[in-house]
Amino acid sequence: MGFSSWRGVVGMINPTMRPGVTEEVIRLLPEGIGLIPLFLNIRRGTEDEFAAIMPAYEQRIAELAECGCDLIHPHGAPPFMVQGRKREAEIVAAWEKKYKVPIMSVAQNHVNALKTLKAKSIVGATYFPPKLNAIFAKYFREAGFTVRDMAGIDVPFNEVQNLSSYRVYAHIKRHFLAVKGADAIYMLGSGWRTLDIIETLERDLQVPVVHPVTARVWEIQKRLHVREPRDGFGYLLAALP
Question: Does residue 157 share a domain with residue 38?
Fold first, then answer.
């Protein structure tokens, strides 16, 4: 049985039980877009855990397809990036064919946002260790970007949500200046609560920021043919290009 909302319904699959991101997405989505959140239970944030989680994503996708969602958004960039860009595209295409619903992975969403901003080079910031950051950088190189840095901040996976956004700002600014900048700043991961630093980073460093929460809200609107700009959270949502 499907339930509707007057501007469309999005099914969102969260990779962990971590609170925060679902609330932020709901606050930023325009009135009339319904959200059905489901959850996985990634706990360690390791490469092997990410690589093995695709069957669990598919189970949730099947549930959301039965609900009649207009768009399904499995989020969590690392599980898709460790597949590699080509394999990720094959997985998403197979799900779309099987369940007859448009599907937007978060990694594809980030590439779409960066390309819309006409970025050719990026400085990335994550809360993951060097080995995973190398995989993430490779993913973006495969997508055609020059990756000047993919800099992880040292924090246990289960404590990311407790990071000060000001510490994240300082981390990003330090690495951005060290490599003499890029066309855009890319923030990987929805675990940190950092919406409040997007506009400060853009103003101070004079480049756009692709943040996972605002990027998904931007593309959800685009895919549902909704146009409702939102000030205060960076260029992508304010301009909705």
Answer: no
C-alpha triplet 48, 40, 51: angle, nearest 5° = 20
pTM above 0.85, yes or no: yes
Strand order in the sheet with 184-187: 146-152, 121-126, 184-187, 209-210
Sites in the chain below the pLDDT cut of 50: none
Q: What is the per-residue pLDDT for 39?
A: 98
Same domain, 118 and 207: yes
Residue the block writes with tokens 């855990």: 49
Torsion angles phi and psi, residue 144, rounded to 5: 105, 10
Residue 195 belongs to domain with CATH number: 3.40.50.1860
pLDDT at 4: 83
Whether 116 is in a domain gets the answer yes
Q: Nearest Cα to 158, choosing from 192, 130, 196?
A: 192
The token duo for 91 is: 């997985």
Q: Are 67 and 36 in contact (CB under 8 A)?
A: yes
The secondary structure of 177-194 as a DSSP string is HHTT--SEEEE--SSS--
In this structure, how many other beta carbons lie within 10 angstroms of the beta carbon of residue 217?
26
Q: How many domains does the chain have?
A: 2
